[in-house]
Specification:
L-fuculose-1-phosphate Aldolase; alpha+beta; 3-oxo-tetronate 4-phosphate decarboxylase; 212 residues; 7 helices; eight-stranded mixed sheet
Length: 212
């Protein structure tokens, strides 16, 4: 089986997994992977992640031109922006999962990191989570904001929208997204209770032990 066929099948499997875990709903959210030749596979526009068909997944050139499959998600442009800025990124997950979107709707005093470092696994898999200002769905101006955040971050939170998470593989991006959603859930469960986030020293120790 070719790399492309394997990745198409993997997008279908992971899309179904995320849908069945109720992290994706309706036709919201999109997944993409980058092939060795630089072309991009991305879920089609108005598709449900729980019912993807491998042959209908969009294939784009590195410049975003459609090569095969259905028309891509209308948000494909910010996937391209991440790939342009992060050469090591091979996959991207963008969903509208409940707790992460709820966190994106809050007023944040510090937009450099929208969720506290509650666990070591959030630090390892997500890192700092900058909050990007609101853009309407499909607004191409969002690409510049995503590109700028991608220079130093593998994940970000779009205001009133949801997270974008990249990884060196689709599995890594999915696992990091799940960790982000669990941290958002913990954030709301803790609520106004006094919490004990990881200290800067603890985070530095994690970064030394598990460099990204």
């Amino acid at each position: 089986m070719s790399q492309e066929a394997e990745l198409r099948a993997k997008i279908v499997r992971m899309g179904s997994l995320l849908y069945n875990r109720q992290l994706a709903h309706g036709s919201a959210g999109n997944l993409s992977v980058r092939l060795d030749d630089g072309s991009i596979l991305v879920t089609p526009t108005n598709s449900c992640l729980g019912f993807l068909e491998p042959e209908r997944i969009s294939k784009l050139t590195p410049a975003g031109e459609l090569l095969s499959g259905d028309p891509p998600s209308k948000e494909y442009f910010f996937h391209m922006a991440v790939y342009e800025e992060r050469p090591a990124a091979k996959a991207i997950v963008h969903l509208h999962s409940t707790y992460s979107v709820a966190a994106s709707c809050l007023c944040h005093a510090h937009t450099g990191n929208a969720l506290p470092p509650l666990t070591a696994y959030h630090v390892m898999r997500v890192g700092k989570l900058p909050l990007i200002g609101y853009y309407r769905p499909g607004d191409k101006a969002l690409a510049d904001a995503v590109r700028a955040a991608s220079r130093e971050h593998r994940a970000m939170l779009l205001a009133n929208h949801g997270p974008i998470v990249s990884g060196s593989s689709l599995e890594e991006a999915v696992y990091a997204y799940e960790e982000l959603e669990e941290t958002a859930k913990l954030y709301f469960i803790i609520g106004d209770r006094k919490a004990s986030p990881l200290t800067a020293e603890a985070i530095a120790d994690i970064d030394r032990a598990f460099p990204s």
